[in-house]
Write a structure and sequence with these properties.
The chain contains 12 helices and 7 strands. With 286 residues, it is α/β, with parallel strands linked by helices. InterPro entries: P-loop_NTPase, Sulfotransfer_4.
């Protein structure tokens, strides 16, 4: 619901990137930044704000896939009002809805070969976790509220957004991928969108957005030349970023454990975290 005194939007929504996870969304985010669109909502924003953003995205997922109350423009403005663009999931789940709510925004359908997409997801988001990784999750669940908020959102996202096991149900995963892109194309008018992949470079994107191609100064000649298109978040970078997030959550969990419950109950809290993990049947998916 709209909060009194808060404007509809702080900044205009300029670009909606309809591209799911592991299609080059982080590269796209940085590309938009170089084009002057400095605030692009991405899954990284949920990582940074799980307690505030997670419940709103969970509500949106239930609204679309489970017949919950529909979100109004005021609701989306509350979540995205400070952002000029969106990309990656969870926004990509709602690409057509966001395109309808923000009719002046341009839409980029961010493509990747389905088979390559599947392998990339398998080796990053859905890669197997070690026993130590899972024990760390248990501890953070018990003592870090941000971890619990993230896990609650994640369970909702898996239930409604990804209703399949990516590791064992390849056919269902690829069918889901093709279906969501089919929805993009069926519900968003062709004149509002461009088909794009990060390998195409600046020209088609800049032509569509009516923005100049970014320039950089060549260190040898001193001349201005076309800037390289960003290519970020490869498999190694993904795991590095994930490790940094887990380390931050662990640090907060340790501080909370010692500050609020003391040495005697740390083990009991970890056991409770184990119970939560078992009860949720995560199966190492996070």
């Amino acid at each position: 619901m709209k909060t009194a005194g808060i404007p509809d939007r702080v900044v205009p929504m300029k670009v909606i990137v309809c591209g799911v996870q592991r299609t080059g969304t982080l590269s796209m985010r940085y590309a938009l930044y170089q084009l002057g669109i400095h605030d692009c909502y991405h899954m990284h924003d949920v990582f940074e704000n799980p307690s505030t953003d997670g419940p709103l995205w969970s509500r949106a997922l239930k609204s679309k896939y489970a017949g919950g109350d529909p979100l109004l423009k005021e609701d989306w403005d509350l979540l995205l009002g400070n952002y000029q663009a969106v990309c990656d999931v969870p926004p990509a789940f709602f690409g057509p809805e966001l395109a309808e709510i923000y009719p002046d925004a341009k839409v980029v359908i961010l493509n990747r070969d389905p088979e390559k997409w599947y392998v990339s997801v398998l080796n990053s988001i859905h890669s197997k976790r070690t026993i130590l990784d899972q024990l760390a999750v248990l501890f953070c669940l018990a003592f870090n509220p941000d971890t619990r908020a993230w896990m609650s959102f994640g369970l909702t996202m898996f239930k409604y957004g990804w209703p399949f096991d990516h590791r064992t149900e390849k056919e269902k995963a690829i069918t889901w991928y093709k279906d969501i892109y089919k929805e993009f194309r069926e519900r968003i008018p062709a004149e509002r969108r461009i088909e794009f992949s990060v390998g195409e470079g600046w020209k088609p994107l800049c032509d569509f957005l009516e923005l100049p191609v970014p320039k950089t100064r060549d260190c040898e000649t001193g001349k201005l030349v076309e800037a390289p298109f960003p290519h970020l978040n490869d498999r190694f970078a993904f795991h590095t970023d994930n490790a940094q997030t887990q380390a931050a959550w662990m640090k907060a969990a340790v501080q909370n454990a010692w500050a609020f419950v003391g040495k005697a109950t740390v083990l009991g809290g970890a056991s409770f975290g184990g119970y939560l993990l078992w009860k949720s049947r995560l199966g190492g998916r996070f």
